[in-house]
Amino acid sequence: MRNAVWENIFRRQGKQLSETALALSNVPIFNGLSQKEIREIENIIHQREFQAGETIFQQGDPGLGMYIIVLGQVQIVNNQDPDNPIIYSELGDGDFFGDMSLVDEADRSATALAIANTRIIAFFRPELKDILTRFPSLGNKILMNLAEVIARRLRKTNDLLIEAQKQTSGGSK
Question: Which domains, from first to last, does the chain contain?
Answer without folding.
Answer: 17-168 (2.60.120.10)
